[in-house]
Amino acid sequence: MKKCPYSAQREKILAEAISPVATELRLLDASDLISLLRFEYYGNLADLVASAAELFFHPGTVNFGLGGNYTLEWGGKPEVVLDLEIKPRGVTVYAQLTLAEDHAGIEINHISFQNASSDPDANTAFLQRSLHDARYIVAKPQALAG
Q: Which InterPro entries did the record assign (predicted)?
């Protein structure tokens, strides 16, 4: 995607929103993810992404996309890139999630607003609200009255 002045801000919003999903996916063995990519077991990858996402987002919000990539070199650390389709209400984001040994990153390839505003700041704020609304919010426990 051609970067615009709002790209970095939107990627930061998206990264904060899906960081728990990335953390769950990083618990998987890198060699398993690489094998699934190499042999094009995309249904299995879709199940793994859905399982990680269902802990934090409403069903259908975070989905495996069309594929991915990996880096695995002698003496180097593995890196896995998964295509994701993130669809909170009113927005579709196509992104690539990079998973490495001690970090994860996200890059937006395309973003589409269902009812886009002419104000890019309003679109960015809508993206943030929409991602927040798609998450399961755990209520803080109430103190017991004594």
A: UCP034217 (IPR017024)
Within the chain, residue ranges assigned H as helices are 7-25, 30-38, 42-53, 120-133
Predicted confidence at residue 144, as pLDDT, reads 52
Q: Cβ(108)–Cβ(14) under 8 Å?
A: yes
Planar angle of CA 129, 135, 139, nearest 5 degrees: 105
Judge whether residue 36 has pLDDT over 80.
yes
- CA-to-CA distance for 56 and 138, rounded, in angstroms? 10
Widest CA span of the chain, in angstroms?
62
Category of 140 on φ-ψ map: left (φ > 0), alpha (ψ -120 to 50) or beta:
beta
* Distance from C-alpha of 122 to C-alpha of 118, rounded to nearest angstrom: 8
Torsion of CA 85, 56, 138, 23, to 10 degrees: -120
Neighbouring-strand partners of residue 70: 80
What is the distance between the alpha carbons of residues 106 and 129, in angstroms, rounded to a whole number? Answer: 19
As a whole number of angstroms, the distance between CA 133 and CA 129 comes to: 6
Pairwise CA distance, residues 132 & 6, whole Å: 19
pLDDT band at 6 (very low <50, low <70, confident <90, very high): confident
